[in-house]
Every structure is written in structure tokens, then in C-alpha cells.
Design goal:
The protein has 471 residues and is of the alpha/beta class. The protein contains 21 helices and twelve strands. The strands form four sheets. A five-stranded parallel beta sheet has the order 7-8-9-6-10, with helices on both faces. A three-stranded mixed beta sheet has the order 1-2-3. The chain is flat, with a radius of gyration of 29 Å. The protein binds adenosine-5'-diphosphate (ADP) and magnesium ion. Adenosine-5'-diphosphate binds next to α7, α12 and α14.
Length: 471
Amino acid sequence: MDYKELWIQIIKDLDPIIKRTNILAWFNNTAIIDQTENEITVGLPLPMYLDWHQKHLKVNTLQVVKKMLPKIDCIKYVVDLALDRDEDPRGVKIIEIFPSKKRERKLPNKNEIKLPGGIVSKILNKRYQLSNFVIGNNNRLAHAACLSVASKPGVNYNPLFVYGGVGLGKTHLLQGLGNEVKKNYPNKIVVYLTSEDFTNEVVLAIQKRSTEKLREKYRKADLLIIDDIQFIANKDRTQEEFFHTFNALYQAGKQIVISSDRPPIELDILEDRLRSRFSMGMIADISEPDYETRLAILHTKLHYTGIILSNEVLEFIAYNIKGNVRELEGAMNQVVAVYDLENITPTIKSVTKILKNMIKNTENIGFIEDKKEMVYIKTFDDLIDIVCEYFNVPKSEVLGVSRIREYTLPRQVSMYLGKKKMKMALTRIAEKFSRDHTSVLHAVRKIEKELRNNRQIIRDVNAIKEEAGLM
Ligand code: ADP
Ligand code: MG
């Protein structure tokens, strides 16, 4: 067996042990470049591979090597920049070892299907279901409208127009609706396109002088979903075609569902006649999820990974990643990946590090730049420190059992802010203070009451909130 065959075999044996994505990322263009009796030398194409192989892959690799070559007890890594060129014959091409789904996805149009009559549609992602969409105050109406449309397409709200910012769940809802209709009405023709896909279709039809056919084609759809309509703006011919398609479908009682990043009235470049068409049915917005919804989303998503993270960690992520569900999911996946890779249980400390790395424009350590406000990444422990410092009392007393007001007040204020501002669970606060949750509840109520009329407490609490970035 030559070096290359040997290395390919090793990588294949590693496949069940290491995640495929990691193999794709870290083994491409690598090679065995030397072998002695008890050592192999692995060449890596770039310096950045070195650290990763040494820290995360070496143990597993050695284990696999040993099975084939029991005498080997050491792997040496060297960076060999020549390997970075795809032409270098020594380096293995992972894509050839595992003709992967990933590659197929890259081929153009692989995620599209042709429906009866030659209609092109994107394939709906089965992960997006109305049933696994977490409902919160931010999306209740939009979700309800989608459910209603899915139960009787073309009847209730037509068109349905859903709008909201990036990563808030529009695509999930629209595809969920499509999946639901396919389930409820297997014979209905469901078409899902982005406005870019639609534009491409129009451009092709114009080239082939077959716009009439295009219209005919889409008229056969029972449900036409166009995602991200904002990208249609400014393309006159596309708008015109869409207008005609829209009218044809609408008049035939077919359902149309549209999403956009802003409401119809703000789609400046849209022709008035289209804008007014969009406003005929139901308009529902999705806004940013609140803390409780973010936490519920994390729980739902985590369920699918089959990995367990502590509530503390989930709460911490939900507390700090605001505004965008995609980022929220990303943060959780990062944490899960580290857990998987390093086999350590994530703690608030390690998660803080990951979150800081995720958020690009972090300037001050401990801060996340948010569009609207500066958010402290603070643990409950940090908060208690700030309270103790403010009242100038030892933390041990505040965490302890003393009933002197000098200590009970900081204790109660900590509990109050933990509950009201950090949105911690009562039981978690109770744990920290080695008490039961009713005494925490009692403390929270007490401070709430004081805040109604005790000027000094109002001042104290406000000062601490400001200090802790909890305004
Ligand atoms: P948009 O299309 O608005 O940019 P997406 O639909 O792509 O956003 O959502 C981004 C990610 O967040 C997806 O993985 C989606 O499943 C998830 N997501 C958003 N909102 C929710 C929710 N309420 N419940 C469950 N998952 C959600
Ligand atoms: Mg989308």
C-alpha cells in the first residue's frame, strides 16, 4: 500500500469517529509524507491546520493508525504549503473519497424539482414544519395565519403577506406552510420560489420569448409561495410578469403567500399596482423574540441534536443573543460543537468565550455590541459582585444566612435583579443563595413593593442596574 492509499484508508476509518464536516474541513489536501518504523509524518496544507490536528484530531488518528500499523506510536505533523494546490498529487481529495451530499448540493439546481407542467419549485425542507415552529408574542399572528391558510388554501387570507427582519423565521413559516398543505392535500401543486428564482425564470423566458408559456405554467399552481419578494424590486419585467401571474392565480382562487423583509408600504421600488395587490389579503409581521421565546426555541432546537446542555448555559445564550434566531441557533450549535469535539461540558465561562468570538465587533471585553443597546455579558455571580460592591458589604454575608438589614437588602436586591432583569428562574436564584424558591419570591415582591415608594431603594436599584448594564 502506498502512502496515499494508506492515508485514504485511515481517513475512511476515521469517518465513523469524527464528524464528516470536520473531515471535509481538515483532511482535504493532507497526505502522509513520511513513515519510519514507529512514526508517520502527516503533511498539512496550511499552518492553521496544525493546531486543530494536534489538539482535536491526533488522538483519534493515532488510534486508527495503530490498528493498521501496530508499531506506530507517534504522529508528526508538518506544514507543506505545496499541498494546498489541488494539483499536488500527494494530497487526498476528500470529495473523491466521500462523494458527498455536500457536493451535490453545490451543483446548480439540485435543490429544485420540476412539477407537473414543467413548473420549477425549490424542494421544501422537511425540517421546517409549522408544528416545530415555536410560538411567541413576536410571531403569533403570522403563525396562526399560516395554519389557517394551510388548512384551507385559497379561502381565508389571500394573499398572505408575512414580513420581518433577517433570521426571524419567515422561510421556516412559509416552507412549513407548504409542507403542511402537501400533507393535507397531496394532490395540490405547491410551488415555493424565492423572488430571485422567479426572476431567473422570467429572464430565461424573455430570452426564449416564452413569457406567455411561463404565465400558463404558473397558473397551474394551487399554492404559490414567493420568499423574499424584496429582491424583485426594480426589475420591471419581472414585476410585470409577477403581476400577471398573481392576477391569474388570484382570480382562479389559488393561494398566494409572500414574504418580505419589510411591509408592502415600504417596498419603495414596487409598482403601486403590485403593492396594492399585496395589501388585499392579510399582512402579518414577525418581530424579534423575547427572552422566553428565545429560550423555548433553544430547547426545541437542542432536542434535535440529542445533546444535553445545562439550563444555565441555555439561559445564558438566550439572555445574550438577542434579536436574530439564526444567530441564536448558531451560538447554540457552536457550543454543541465544542462539547462534541472536546468532550467537555460547556460552562458559562467557556460559553462566554464562544459568544465573544461569535460577535464580531466586540471591543470591550464583556460587552456585546447590540444594535440598540450595549449588553453586558454578565453572569448572576457578576451581578452579585456588583451589588456587594455598591453596598460595600462582603459577598459571603450576602450569600450567607445573616438577617441584619445591612446584608438582607443587598441579598434581596440581587434576587430581584436576577429575576426581573436577568430573567433567571427562581429555582436557580434559590440555588445560588442556598434557599428555597419561595424565599426568593418573597424577596422579589418585597423589593417591588419598596420600589413603589422608597426613594432610596429606587436610587440604589437604578444605580446598580446602570453599573451592571441592566437598564
Ligand atoms: P428568515 O427567513 O426570516 O430570514 P429563517 O426562517 O431562515 O429566517 O429562520 C432562521 C432560523 O431560525 C431557522 O433555522 C429557523 O428554523 C429558526 N427559527 C426562527 N424562528 C423560529 C421559531 N419561532 N421556532 C423555531 N425555529 C425558528
Ligand atoms: Mg428567509
